[in-house]
Amino acid sequence: MGLKPRTGDVPPLHAFVRRRRRLSWLQALVLVAVFTALVVVAAAGLITRTDPSRFPDLATGLWWAVATVTTVGYGDVVPATPTGRLLAAALMFVGIGAFAFLTAVAASAIVVSEVGEEETTIEREERDIARVQNVILARLDDIDTRLQRIEDAHTTDQ
Q1: N or C: which end of the chain has fewer CB within 10 A?
Q2: Domain boundaries, the chain
Q3: Which residues, 6+ apart, have CB-to-CB distance to 92 below 8 Å?
Q4: Tens of pLDDT along 65-103?
Q5: Radius of gyration (Cα) for the chain, nearest Å?
């Protein structure tokens, strides 16, 4: 009869999660910091071009961009042109998004560590179940072989 467990059956979602590369805390932090720094520098450069009377140099633009991206907004320098204000609004959303992303990364790090421990436990239990299943299947194969011998002996006796 040959009762053997099927190996290699992996649920699609489980296989995807195992292949997906996860960012470490440090990698996520560096990613957000680099992206935010690039946006701040770009915004500072753009604001000096769109509103040169209020932002005469890059240093003033950088000060304004940092104050805006952190959503502090001191108000000592503010854009007067519509393009400058649109740039400020976009920069505010980048700042809010960066902080939201960092919060999500922190929450994810906590959940992933808990899930990792749970996943290890589940994998250990799955290995135990597979071992028991193999023992049961081997025993069933043995019983099947014995029954076949009994049937063969009974058939030759008749």
Answers
A1: C
A2: 24-157
A3: 68, 69, 71
A4: 999 998 888 889 999 999 999 999 999 999 999 989 888
A5: 32
